[in-house]
Amino acid sequence: MSTLLHIDSSVRAANNANSDQNSISKNIALRFVDTWKRNRPEDDYIYRDVGMNPPDFITQDWIGAVFTPENKRTPAQKERLALSDKLIDEVSAADVILISSPMYNYGMPAQLKAWFDQIVRVNKTFDFDLSRGDFPLQPMLSGKTLIIVTSSGEFGFEKGGLREVSGHLAPHLRTLSKYLGADKMYEIASEYQEFGDDRHRLSVANATNRAEKLASELSISTPAGSVKNGIATM
Fold it and tell me: Which CATH fold topology does 3-233 show?
C-alpha cells in the first residue's frame, strides 16, 4: 500500500454555482486522483486545500523555535511548530505527491508558498553542513514522485516559449521539489485561460487527458511498498 498526498492551492473551489469560476487546476488534479483511487483503492490518501485553508506564515518566533535545540524548546515553541511538524509528517509519509497550482502574478500563490515555508526546514527536510563548501544544504527525503498541475491565463511559459522569462511557477516548484524528496517529477500545464478561446479549451482537455493517462501509468508502476526517507518498506 502506498500513500498519495494531494495539495490544492487555488483560492477557487473546484465547483461553484457559476461554473466559469471553477478552479481549472483543481479539476485537472481531481481527474488524476479519481483515476488513482479507482486503480488503487487500498492506498492511503491525504488531502489539503491550502488555497481555501492556508497555513500560517512563518514568523520571527517560528524561526527562533526552529533553531532552538529540540530538547530545549519551550511548550510555546513546540506549539508554534506543531503545524510544521504535521505537514512534514504528511510529506514524509507520501510516496506520490500531487500539487495543483494556478499561476498568480507569474508565480505560485502565497498560500502554497506558506505551505512550502512550513516544510522546508533545517534538520527535518534538509541538513546544513559547511564542510560541503558552496553547497551546504542537502535534502533529507528521497524516493518520491511529484506531479505538478498548473494553470495560467497566458501561454508560452515553457523553455523557449514566448514568455519563458516571466514564468516563475514551474521553475520554483522544480527547485523546491528536492526538499519534498522528489526523485521523479511530471508536469501538466493548462494555458490560455484569459483568452477563453479554442486554444484554451484544447489546452484544458489535453491537460485533463494527460492527468488521467499519467495516473493510470503511475498507479501501475508504483510499487505496493514504499520508499520513505530513503528507506524501502513493505
Answer: Rossmann fold (3.40.50)
Is 23 one of the annotated binding-site residues?
yes
Question: Is 10 part of any known ligand binding site?
Answer: yes
24 is in an annotated binding site: yes
Hey, is 152 helix, strand or coil?
A: coil
Q: pLDDT of 192-202, one tens digit each?
A: 999 999 999 99
CB 25 within 8 A of CB 151: yes
Does the annotation place 25 within a ligand binding site? yes
Quick: pLDDT tens for 124-145. Answer: 999 999 999 999 999 999 999 9
Q: Return the number of other C-beta atoms located less than 10 Å from residue 155's C-beta.
A: 20
Domain residue extents for the chain: 3-233
- Please indicate, yes or no, whether the overall pTM of this predicted structure exceeds 0.85: yes
